[in-house]
Structures are given as C-alpha cells and as structure tokens.
Amino acid sequence: MPKLTRHEVRHPDGRAVYLFGEYSPAPSGYQLPESPAGSYERRWNPLRAEWVLVAASRQGRTFLPGRSDCPLCPSIAGRSTEIPASGFKLAVFENRFPAMKAEAGGGACEVVVYTDRHDASLNTLSPAQLSDLMEVWANRYEQLGSRPDVKYVYIFENRGEAVGVTLHHPHGQIYGYPFIPPVAATELRAGRAFARRTGRCLQCDLVSEERKARDRFLFMEAGIVAYVPSYARWPYEVHVVPVRHLGSLTDLSKAGRSALGRALQRVTQAYDRLFDVPMPYMMVVHQRPTDGQLHPEAHLHVEFYPLMRIPGRLKFLAGGEVGAGTFVADGLPEVKAAELRKVL
Fold first, then answer.
1. For 183-343, which CATH class?
2. What is each CA distance from 137 to 20, 74, 175, 284, in whole angstroms?
3. Which one from 11, 118, 169, 171 is the annotated catalytic residue?
4. How far is Cα 35 from Cα 219, in angstroms, rounded to an integer?
5. Are 131 and 258 in contact (CB under 8 A)?
6. 234 bridge partner residues
7. pLDDT in tens, 258-279
8. Do residues 88 and 74 make contact, with C-beta atoms less than 8 angstroms apart?
9. pLDDT in tens, 115-151
10. pLDDT at residue 3, rounded to an integer
C-alpha cells in the first residue's frame, strides 16, 4: 500500500489544515470561517494540584448544525467549511474553538475528520480507511510530540449527544497538553510503582491475567487484545491493548496499527449491536508522554467509556463520582463482558 501523502494548507490566521491522501481543491471563492475572540488561560488548582484550562471562546462554538451547515463536510460553491477542499480522504485541522493555545500557556488542539462522508462513523470505515486513520494518529503523535510545549499527546473521540458532541460528522480530536494530564499521570505513577516492586510492566500483567481468566476477555486478533477490566467504572467499559510492551502508536508497526484499528472497530460495532442503537461513548488513547523522559512504564492502550447501561438509560456521573472520585459500577464486569461477547 502506498504511503499516505500529506498536503498542508496554512490559513491567513495561522491555523494549519492537513489533507491526507487524495483531495479536490477548494471551490472558487473559498473564505476562511471567522475565528472567535475570547480569553485563554491556564490556572492552577491548589486543592487538587492540577491545571484548569480556561477557554472562554468555546461558548460560541458550532452547536448541532443541520447537515447542510456542517462545518466538517467538504466546501462547496457558496458555502465554505473548516476544510478547504471540495472533496477529501481524511483531514486534520487546528481547532477554531480550542481548549488551549500555544501563545496562552502552550498546547495544541486538533480535529481529525475521518472521512468527507457526513453519514459515516468509525463503524463504517473500510479497512483501508481504518488503516489510514491509524497512520494519521501516529503522524500527529510524532509531530505534536516533537513540539517543546507539548508534553502529552492525547487522542480521543466523543460520540453521541449524550457525551456532549456538538457535530455529528465523524471525527475525533487530539489535545497536545503542555503537561501530563491527571489521569495519565496517575496511570504512569501506578506503573512505575509496580515496576519498582516487581520489575514488570503493570499493563502487561493485566493483559496476561485477563487472557488466563477468560471471563472478562473479549477477543485477541493480530497481537491486539480487548477485555472488560475487572475494575470497570463505566457500563461495558472495554480496554484494547497490544500484547507486546509498546509505549506509543509509533512503536507499533504499520500492520500493528492496522490491527489496532480493526480491533477498535470491532468494539464500536459490538456496542451498536448491544441495544440496536448507536452507543454514545468516549474513546481515549493513553500512551507514552512526550516530555523528553523515557517512561518505560508506559504501555499503549485504548479505553472505551460507553454511557448506556441498559436500553434507554444512561450512566450519569453524580456526587460520588465527581465530588469523591469514587465510581459506582452498575453491574458486574463479568456479566457485561458476556453480553458483549454475544454481539461481537
């Protein structure tokens, strides 16, 4: 398969758009959508010893437009979108409504548009499209991670209005944090402590235990495993992990990244079959920080947080989860895994 090409377009406001693969030029008269004004700050929370991002301009971001006004669709004559192309394979652009800016404390925010088809989803991407998406993720991890102001490259997808999605066109996001965010920092800290006690990788041990136990195991394909963790906090939470100890997407071979993409799609397709409705979820990628340290404790993995616990009912975070930080699981992980295996 030929290498995925990348074409860069630089807008007058300085924001970049990357068109991966074949594309058709923007129609005559293309005009860049106006960027909003607003304050961007990074403030320290001394009670939690963590950063809070202030991004006032996000209040005005596009909210659930109709298909004819979708800002992620290709541009056409008389309607300019975020994508300066009349057709494209896959696009990445710097978010017009970012959570952080390089000039205001550091960091980056990008939007990854999976396809120019408005009615598609991660579920419906072809094998070639999935492979391309994984290559784009790896490219952005490498490129953003090389910036001195980016210490952690966080790739994620929010799906469904229940999660807070404001655009239905299939897309994900990438945050290049100027610090290691709290959840990743906690996982890495646990991994370091485990390695000091045992000399082994915590994630490697978790994968080995799930493969042996089988009752929460979902599948293994081409060196990628998927399982419901014994400590799942979300209903039908799934972790997708390379069996080999690999720290980031760039440590995987191209074939390995393609296998990861197929595994992610198997999970999302199972979610939609579970209750015969599109499952709202958050999908997040945890991998090695880009802060210049080695981080041998880092083990690439993808976590899914689906919100639907039974048909028509969602898992909401309430006082115990938000105020105390202690999740209550609505069901046994072993039972949830068995239900998922039936629809894989």
1. alpha beta
2. 11, 21, 12, 12
3. 171
4. 45
5. yes
6. none
7. 999 999 999 999 999 999 999 9
8. yes
9. 999 999 999 999 999 999 999 999 999 999 999 999 9
10. 83
Copy the structure tokens of residue 121: 């989803």
Here the tokens at position 21 are 């693969």
CATH classification (class only), 6-181: alpha beta
**Is 168 one of the annotated active-site residues of the chain?**
no
Phi, psi of 134 (to 5 degrees): -65, -40
Mean pLDDT of the chain: 96
User: In the chain, what are the domain boundaries?
Assistant: 6-181, 183-343
pLDDT score of 1: 58
Are the beta carbons of 113 and 87 closer than 8 angstroms? no
CB atoms within 10 A of CB 344: 13
SS3 274: helix
- Phi and psi of 139, rounded to 5°? -60, -45
**Residue 328 in tokens:** 């209550």
Fold match, 6-181 / 183-343: yes
Q: In residues, how long is the chain?
A: 344
C-alpha distance across the termini of the chain, in Å? 28
Spatial distance between the Cα atoms of 220 and 273, rounded to a whole number of angstroms: 20
pLDDT tens sequence across 177-204: 999 999 999 999 999 999 999 999 999 9
- What is the spatial distance between Cα 332 and Cα 231, in angstroms, rounded to a whole number? 9
CA distance 255 to 1: 11
Q: Which amino acid is at 197?
A: R
